[in-house]
Amino acid sequence: MPYAEPSSSPLVSLRDIHLSFGSNEVLKGIDIDIQRGQAVSIIGPSGSGKSTILRCITGLIRPQSGQIRVGATQVDQLHTEAELIALRQRVGFVFQQYNLFPHLTVLQNLTLAPIRVLGLDRQRAGRLARDLLERVRLAHKADAYPGELSGGQQQRVAIARALAMRPELILFDEVTSALDPETVGEVLTVIRELTQDGMTCVLVTHEMRFAEEISDEVYFTEAGNIVEHGPASRIFHHPANPRTRIFLERSL
Ligand code: ADP
Ligand code: MG
């Protein structure tokens, strides 16, 4: 149910989110606030609930209890498919697997949804797509097919595709984990520039140095709990919780 949202309130807020798969309690009371223009990282061991948190924000899964708000939208109250589709237009989501359409060119991958969903005409969508390809440094690949690109290039196309929907924020779920080491940097560069441009970004990553560099706020998850959160400089250099400290010692 939409309601008047004070402009100073966070763009995204999760309050006391509980979620179980069968008898497996995966989220045990998650509270997260994401301000407009912030880069927020969620770090923590595998299986601690990071991807599940992102999927809750986009309404892909519904928690058993708690409140999730994105802008003026109370995500936990959405019921119809149309409402959920509208939410997902506002929240970009980039995964480890880029899932580009293999039979479409790079440009067509970028214009498909803006034409079909946003109703842009082909020319306008094409111009927007070329601008975005410029931004991810792939203007020269507009007419290539995904299979002709490296993993890092495909992931940059996937980021441009998310941007083409003009989202209010973008969620990145381990977007460099499947890439060859030599192409990781070019993807991180694109994300870094997005955060510098003021795009609200939520990043689940194992790239700890990168998370430290770009994040305004870091959340550390373990076994379905937020163990601690705070400014990146504090979490990475003075973690208050011994579990965070052990995790960072192993990861850095
Ligand atoms: P992370 O992203 O931190 O590695 P996930 O959010 O993917 O962790 O998973 C958290 C827990 O939830 C894990 O125990 C995982 O096995 C379980 N889980 C995730 N998705 C599902 C699902 N669709 N069905 C059942 N269990 C799931
Ligand atoms: Mg995950």
TrEMBL record:
<dbReference type="GO" id="GO:0005886">
    <property type="term" value="C:plasma membrane"/>
</dbReference>
<feature type="domain" description="ABC transporter">
    <location>
        <begin position="12"/>
        <end position="248"/>
    </location>
</feature>
<dbReference type="GO" id="GO:0015424">
    <property type="term" value="F:ABC-type amino acid transporter activity"/>
</dbReference>
<dbReference type="InterPro" id="IPR017871">
    <property type="entry name" value="ABC_transporter-like_CS"/>
</dbReference>
<protein>
    <submittedName>
        <fullName>Phosphate ABC transporter ATP-binding protein</fullName>
    </submittedName>
</protein>
<dbReference type="GO" id="GO:0005524">
    <property type="term" value="F:ATP binding"/>
</dbReference>
<dbReference type="InterPro" id="IPR003439">
    <property type="entry name" value="ABC_transporter-like_ATP-bd"/>
</dbReference>
<keyword id="KW-0029">Amino-acid transport</keyword>
<dbReference type="InterPro" id="IPR030679">
    <property type="entry name" value="ABC_ATPase_HisP-typ"/>
</dbReference>
<keyword id="KW-0547">Nucleotide-binding</keyword>
<keyword id="KW-0472">Membrane</keyword>
<keyword id="KW-0813">Transport</keyword>
<dbReference type="Pfam" id="PF00005">
    <property type="entry name" value="ABC_tran"/>
</dbReference>
<dbReference type="GO" id="GO:0016887">
    <property type="term" value="F:ATP hydrolysis activity"/>
</dbReference>
<dbReference type="InterPro" id="IPR003593">
    <property type="entry name" value="AAA+_ATPase"/>
</dbReference>
<keyword id="KW-1003">Cell membrane</keyword>
<keyword id="KW-0067">ATP-binding</keyword>
<dbReference type="InterPro" id="IPR050086">
    <property type="entry name" value="MetN_ABC_transporter-like"/>
</dbReference>
<dbReference type="InterPro" id="IPR027417">
    <property type="entry name" value="P-loop_NTPase"/>
</dbReference>
<comment type="similarity">
    <text>Belongs to the ABC transporter superfamily.</text>
</comment>
